[in-house]
């Protein structure tokens, strides 16, 4: 399993302290690292490498320079699908048919369902995580074409909500997604995604970071969507919590 980190807020904040704490976990998640954040002009700044963050000169040089943003998505990778390479390191990004840029990082793996298979031919890397993004954007494009216009805020929430409910059945699906306006958060794995509300922003992390924040668990099985500091959408509980099987449950289950 990988680890996620992210922020969404109403103002720019310094990310350096959090990111230094987060990327220290790279020693246990050594197959890649990535960071997306948005500058004062709302332009995406994206870094991703297929190497351990502790061994990355790029990351170490980045962390000693001031990083300030209202929005961020960070990831450290423990590979379960796809080779160790830059192209398989999260976050992934894709622009929809109306010019909206989507950015996604995933913690988990997809072992059930056929929805993502067609995107193996068009993806850049080999991960199921990248295919989730391609499938999501494809669904957004189809819904937009159906309506003859770009989707509004609540319509985008509805599409993403239906996708996480669909894909979470039998799969590990922790997600941080940003569509250049709204920030989507989802977990269906117990005790694997936490949040802390600070003055003017939210912080999300797979594990509570070793700082003064007070951390709570992100609710299971429901899509949460934020615009700045405001939560604008809470999806219905889809009930698809992922519960790891054990040998006592399935004699022939391969771990």
TrEMBL record:
Origin: domain of life: Bacteria
Molecular function via GO: transaminase activity
Key words of the record: Aminotransferase, Glutamine amidotransferase, Transferase
Keyword Transferase part of the UniProt annotation: yes
InterPro entries, sorted: EgtC-like (IPR026869), GATase_2_dom (IPR017932), Ntn_hydrolases_N (IPR029055)
Glutamine amidotransferase type-2 domain: residues covered: 2-255
PROSITE patterns in the cross-refs: GATASE_TYPE_2
Protein name: Glucosamine--fructose-6-phosphate aminotransferase
Biological source species: Clostridium vincentii
